[in-house]
């Protein structure tokens, strides 16, 4: 048991999906896992363990932003022996080549957070990247399902409501596909603990066109992402 996860040794599988929203964690567990058991509800951040096609998996809510995601990723990796973490969340498109409901697999994560500058004493800018095996699996799974996954870098922002449109345009100019708030921290911690990590996000809004996905579309599209993630981790 840790300060934020009330699980006992063995309660959590070595492979964990990390939706930011605890209610999405509950939905994924109850929709896709066989015999899911809730192992934590501390701060209403739900965690479940069950099986998917015979493979033992856990689903853990991780909250919003890098500080919150770092807490859960660190405790899972350091205290519960987790070896694989896959974030499943939402993102805002920064590229005109993306549309609502598209899925992005983040090969790397640029960030404006100071967390890694503090971690490395300001000596250099660390480049957090995904595990290649998971990344490749996700593309293969999506292709087999007739879905398209856009592979490229994303931006892990510390600010949700940004007034800096010029910065967003510059990032897009350099090939950054979308903005979210957790991947950079997840990839850094996975590297520290010699674990595998991947971030899959569904485009729920568009910074260029100003389109926003409806609640019904969110549910249907996030199901596609969850299924890609589940198939990815059992290969």
TrEMBL record:
The keyword Glycosyltransferase applies. One of its GO terms (molecular function) is uridine phosphorylase activity. CDD domains: PNP_EcPNPI-like. Residues 16-233 form the Nucleoside phosphorylase domain. Keywords: Glycosyltransferase, Transferase. Pfam families: PNP_UDP_1. One of its GO terms (cellular component) is cytosol. This is Uridine phosphorylase. The lineage of its organism: Bacteria, Bacillati, Actinomycetota, Actinomycetes, Glycomycetales.
């Amino acid at each position: 048991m840790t300060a934020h996860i009330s699980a006992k040794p063995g309660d959590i599988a070595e492979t964990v999906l990390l939706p930011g929203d605890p209610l999405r964690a509950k939905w994924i567990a109850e929709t896709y896992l066989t015999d899911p058991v809730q192992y934590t509800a501390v701060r209403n951040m739900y965690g479940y363990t069950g099986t998917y096609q015979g493979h033992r998996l856990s689903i853990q809510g991780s909250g919003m932003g890098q500080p919150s995601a770092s807490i859960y990723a660190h405790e899972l990796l350091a205290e519960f022996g987790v070896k694989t973490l896959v974030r499943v969340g939402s993102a805002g498109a920064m590229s005109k080549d993306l549309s609502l409901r598209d899925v992005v697999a983040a090969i790397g994560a640029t960030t404006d957070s100071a967390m890694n500058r503090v971690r490395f004493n300001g000596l250099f800018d660390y480049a957090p990247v995904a595990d290649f095996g998971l990344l490749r699996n996700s593309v293969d799974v999506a292709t087999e399902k007739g879905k398209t996954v856009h592979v490229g870098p994303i931006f892990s922002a510390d600010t949700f409501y940004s007034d800096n449109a010029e910065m967003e345009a510059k990032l897009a100019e350099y090939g950054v596909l979308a903005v979210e708030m957790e991947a950079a921290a997840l990839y850094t911690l996975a590297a520290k603990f010699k674990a595998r990590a991947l971030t899959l996000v569904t485009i729920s809004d568009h910074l260029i066109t100003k389109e926003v996905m409806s609640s019904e579309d969110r549910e249907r599209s996030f199901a596609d992402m969850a299924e890609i993630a589940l198939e990815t981790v059992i290969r």
